Amino acid sequence: YRKLLSFMFACGTGMNLLRRWPWPADNNVLELIHLQKPMIYEFIHWSYAAMLFSTPLICFSSFFALLYIFAVKGDAPLVRNALPPYPSPERRSKLYLILGEVHQAKRQAPAEHPGWLSIPEQGLFTGIAIFGAIGSGKTSCCMMPFAEQILSYRASDPERRVSALVLEVKGDFCFKVRKLLEKHHRGEDYLEIGLQSDYRYNPLHNDQDAYALAFGIASLLNNLFGRGKEPFWQQAYTNLVKFVILLHKVLYDYVTLFDVYACTISPELLHHKIEEGEARFEREYLLVDTAVFEQNPALQRHGFEMDETTRMMKAPRTEALDRYLAQHGIAFESQTEDAGGTVFEPIRDDRKKQQFESVKRWFFEDWQRIEPKLRTSIVEGISVFLSLFDDNPDVKRVFCPPKQTYDPVANRSGVYGKPMPPFNELIEQGRVVALNFPVSMNPGLAKTLGTLMKQDFQRAMLNRIPEMERVQETESRKHFREVLFLCDEYQGFATVGESDPSGDEKFFALSRQAKCIPIVATQSISSLRSTLSGETWRSLLQTFRTKIFLALSDDFSAETASKLCGKEDVLRPNYS
Questions:
Q1: Tens-place pLDDT, residues 274-293
Q2: For residue 227, what are the CA distances in angstroms to 220, 234, 378, 490?
């Protein structure tokens, strides 16, 4: 109450001074000023009265201030007001994320008027990285509350609710996400990929060309086993896998990682498939019904013979035979067979034929000319990775499904499992995809599957950017939903491209335009640095604009966090 006391004492003192030393109105000088300059006289008059009150006020204020500083013991109790009401995520008109409370900025003390610390929607697209030691609350205090706020936003609106990809290594986080979605009536949006799931996921079944798929596998090899000093090995891996994938896409329009592995380790199988391709592109026969053949004797000069398998007349396909059959309206069937008599469905696509010729040139003019020892080294380097999809039947069943899985007619009964839709469809449908493959089962395989799914998701998100621009030109009001990328124990899935065009650091730098919300958690910066090669962790770390540091147990992470927070001059006592 020192201000009130100062005011009261100043008023009493001023009244006493005014009675004791009243205004000297009979002073000759003042009378002269009053006659000559009445305005100046009034100014002096009122200034005299004001100073009789202001001077004691200044003195009493200084006295009580010194008394408060040196005499009053203890701090005044802080009156902390309550936080504003917490805005429910379901009722928010805009998407934003509340991280916690706002208190004193530079000291660990509560604020008199606390508030909510929030990140707006545009800030969410720049990424959030959470660092904390074991038991510091990364999952329970950050990941789950953040996921609930984002996934429950507009949960009742099918056109606006957020879709997501969830990656984790412990096996319990997916269960919590599913419970969270069911709590907010979004249980039908949950799609889980795992060994016990009904869904089948083929990482190679997408619209990427053979080189892009092979390059992704080679980049994954570098991140799993390290990059060698010689670029030859990555180039050799990429070239081998590229042409094997291209061969399967040309012949079957479908390929799995097991198919690539089988052709890589078996030169005989690879050569047999090339012979099959030659038969399907070159050795084509026409089949005509026996009764029709007997009614047209002119067909005998085209070399027809009886086919014991179909009991029809068969002849090599020629332009003259095609012309005759077309002129007389004779129905026919076509088939292709190799030198051993195996029947194949013919391929009449000029583009595929040119691609098949490139595979033949690579096989006979390049691959066969490499020394056997060098070929063995190349095959062994790639088979270490691809064999993961052969030695475990459950993994092979889920992640290398047969082509019939994606055929709605052949898989009408679901005997081959449910095919996982492409990520571009899942994103626009508002689905939440989770990979439930605990690292305890097979650490290398868990990281491989998670990385392949993450790369597939990233490609779909980057392909979304030109599509958004194209649609916005015609439908300016169309809303593209936000997409959450949620990854716990991120050090197990982090990949960097360095000089390659792929990598997480390049995706996070471009994902803002695609409306991706990356939220990752890892134990420390050291764990991220030990996973990645060289200084690439710096490039990856700078793509996350928001960094949350919990309790850190290693000095390097604490030092890096301290440097990121900046410096401030602080007075320190010095005793001598």
A1: 988 887 776 677 888 888 88
A2: 10, 8, 15, 20
